[in-house]
Design goal:
The structure is a homodimer. The first copy, chain A, has about 220 residues and is of the alpha/beta class. Chain A has eight helices and eleven strands. The longest helix of chain A is centred in the middle third of the chain and has 16 residues. The two termini of chain A are about 35 Å apart. About 5% of the residues of chain A have low confidence. The structure holds a DNA duplex (30 and 30 nucleotides).
Chain lengths: ~220, ~220
DNA sequence: GAACCCGTGACAGTTGTGTGACAAATCGCC
DNA sequence: GGCGATTTGTCACACAACTGTCACGGGTTC
């Protein structure tokens, strides 16, 4: 299911956009302000973001720049302003497409598909590739190198490692890992422990004394930088 | 220098677009018909293609499909028709963007930049020719050499191989392959498995132990660099 | 010492992948 | 335009790999 985040302050437009997109088969998240949208995208990233330009507080341009700072997500502007200057500014800020209200839903949907088709040819997983000493994570190639040798990881191990390596130096709670790796909203947190254990068997020189994937008691796990 | 191919039958529009794009710093090739444009793109590929919808002979839609057959080049439609139906059809055919005439050059330029920014993150080599050890893929010539000997591949096998070889070192999911090789938006992913199996019979020395086309369990397939 | 946190081995159920068979669709040739 | 050959997509089966649960035990905190 493709998730779309709609950032739009006008309640009526937000609602009608949401309904239309849901009809097209998208999962829709919404936010009424840029702040809310940015927060939401950071917590639970959507696959595509629709954003209005005229927003209270942080405006659309700034919002796009903020999103682009650490996210390569496709961004589509939906705005009432049809001035060329606005269009150019939004695209320069990092937007991928720009539609003028009122939008035809069929067109919006087609443009989303075209954009996603193009975006998908990019990196498959969020983090590109990470080097942590002897351990190299090549997300695109779907491979992990330890001392230059490719490692045979299962999908779950791979995704777990990507998640941890992508936030090297930062503690991730079992709950966060469950949500991001397993996409579970709930579940047995011990599951994480088991897979961390299995992962350690493969990436640690001495699995009983983990160096690369350490546990932070009471908080979770992290990979030191 | 970024090269743009403009396919447009109206002399005046073609000329003014060319001049405007040259002003923006693009190298511009032109073609007055789809046939001419396709030939030109095959001989000397541009980095982006602008195409009109109403062309004599092969029309714009068909032209887009032909281009897409063996090229991942960004395609922008510039048309006088502003009907949603046309827009959707063009995007579905494979276009990346759609502008309604008359176009503001600044906007066109900004959209080209946005599109190229997005497209560049994609495949490193569009559709040239790839050498992977003993296996040489000549996409343009439509032939594949194994140990210097030409291989007899079916069309599907050939396109599958081109797609994989064109992204050597990168995992492609079954879904991605379905979309790019079969142009299915959905469908049975097992179809990919079957054709990978058939392809292996032809390109692997020992099909039971694939070396050139390996499966990455849970993720998809890839050809190692 | 009690409560809690974490590592780990075992195991059954689930999922992913390769492959042969087959019918429908397409192609090439006359 | 017809007909055999080739290609394509679907299906089902078999096997291997992976996943999640559980229980046990050692360590840590208070």
């Amino acid at each position: 299911m493709v998730a779309v985040l709609v950032i739009e302050d006008d309640d009526r437009i937000r609602l009608s956009l949401s309904l239309a997109l849901e009809d097209e088969g998208y999962a829709v998240y919404t936010a009424a302000t840029a702040e809310e949208g940015l927060l939401r995208q950071r917590r639970e990233p959507a696959d595509t973001v629709l954003v209005d330009l005229m927003l209270p507080g942080i405006d659309g341009f700034q919002c796009i720049r903020e999103l682009r700072r650490d996210d390569d997500v496709p961004i589509v502007v939906v705005s009432a302003r049809e001035d060329t200057h606005d269009i150019v500014a939004a695209l320069e800020a990092g937007a991928d497409d720009y539609l003028v209200k009122p939008v035809a839903v069929k067109e919006l949907s087609a443009r989303l598909r075209a954009l996603r088709r193009r975006a998908r040819t990019g990196p498959a997983t969020p983090a590109g590739h990470q080097d942590l000493g002897d351990l190299k994570v090549r997300a695109q190639a779907g491979e992990v190198l330890l001392h230059g040798q490719p490692l045979a990881l299962t999908r779950t191990e791979f995704r777990l490692l990507c998640e941890l390596a992508g936030h090297a130096g930062q503690v991730l709670s079992r709950q966060q890992l469950l949500e991001r790796v397993w996409e579970y909203d709930f579940g047995d947190e011990r599951l994480v422990d088991v897979h961390v254990g299995r992962l350690r068997q493969k990436i640690e020189d001495d699995p009983a004394n983990p160096q690369r994937l350490v546990t932070v008691r009471g908080l979770g796990y992290k990979m030191p930088r």
